[in-house]
Amino acid sequence: MNSTINLFAPTTVGTLALKNRIVMAPMTRARNFDGIPNDNNALYYQQRSGAGLIITEGTAISNTAMGVLHIPGLYTAKQVEGWKKVTSAVHQKGAKIFTQLWHVGRVSHVSNQPNGQAPVGASDIQAENSFAWGYDENGKETFVKCSKPRALTTEEVKEVVQDFAKAAKNAIEAGFDGVELHGANGYLIEQFLNPMINNRTDEYGGTIQNRSRFLLEAIDACIAEIGASKVAIRLTPYGGMHELPHYDEIDSTYQYLAEELYKRGIAFIHLMDQQSRGSYALPDGFLSRFRTWYKGVIILAGGMNRQKSQELIDTNLIDLAGFGEDFIANPDLVERLKNNWPMTPPNRALHYGLMLEGYIDWKTYEEEQLVNG
Ligand SMILES: Cc1cc2nc3c(=O)[nH]c(=O)nc-3n(C[C@H](O)[C@H](O)[C@H](O)COP(=O)(O)O)c2cc1C
Q: 175 and 84 in contact (C-beta within 8 Å)?
């Protein structure tokens, strides 16, 4: 093991100057009735700005990008204004904040789409056993089975690439430090990567290079708008969420992507291990292989704790540690990790929905002591 790095000390990784190595992972909370970030969202993120870097919940890049009701967007002027509240609240506390740019592709339902149209995907293959959060046939808000998608035409793929770039430009206008493209968890970008879902015969299907083209074009379009040091991506190699089957060329696909992304000098790659979300773990040895392919900044999220993140950073497998669910009920997560204070368990029934309960009412450890004492 190398010498111990202080997780809680200020550091610069790549071009990011951070107050510590803890990252708040992106988490959809569905607290926006009109898609426009508001004061409650600003308070929620400010409460969690003990993190060196916050990555916001998945944020829609267009009106066809959604598969969950009440998520925020970043494609209208009002949404840009709303996000300014969030970015300034977080910056006041000395944290950095990226937004996660999201297109769900086929993981959506007709009730999430404009005029009730079919969701768009890399292909027309349906995620038959996956769920979106939309309206059922009685107009009730609930989990609904994903609808059959329509394959994007070649021209439309290029339009979605531009939607990513426009959202990236809006993000900078809204005060974000950068953007993370959502290339993980079975959503649109990963639907293109996976040859069991992507059956296209145009330049976006077939070889590894072709299946990676949409992702790299979206990255390049964002770089052209806001510069490489402000662009990042989240990836889930070997992930299975939303019915993405494993395929033969997973390692070679991610090696190609890692090398291409490194050439571009992006801010970071954010890997997620899906085991803590009920899907596959990253296979043994993958992180060491990935480190040889990608020499830039690596974040890993999924099942982290203080000891595990310390070990992974000290052995130089990752640079920053991402924490997800723990941040919901522990707004002062960094202080709890630093002081080895106990964690408040999450209440999963309150993860999504418009209610304020379970959103901005979680207490810090010290506040809990006052209440309990
Ligand atoms: C309520 C909730 C919402 C989430 N929403 C997103 C999301 O919008 N985008 C994303 O990439 N991951 C999302 N995730 C996954 C987290 O970013 C994180 O990777 C995952 O929870 C594993 O980390 P953990 O074990 O520390 O929770 C979500 C997780 C939770 C618990």
A: yes
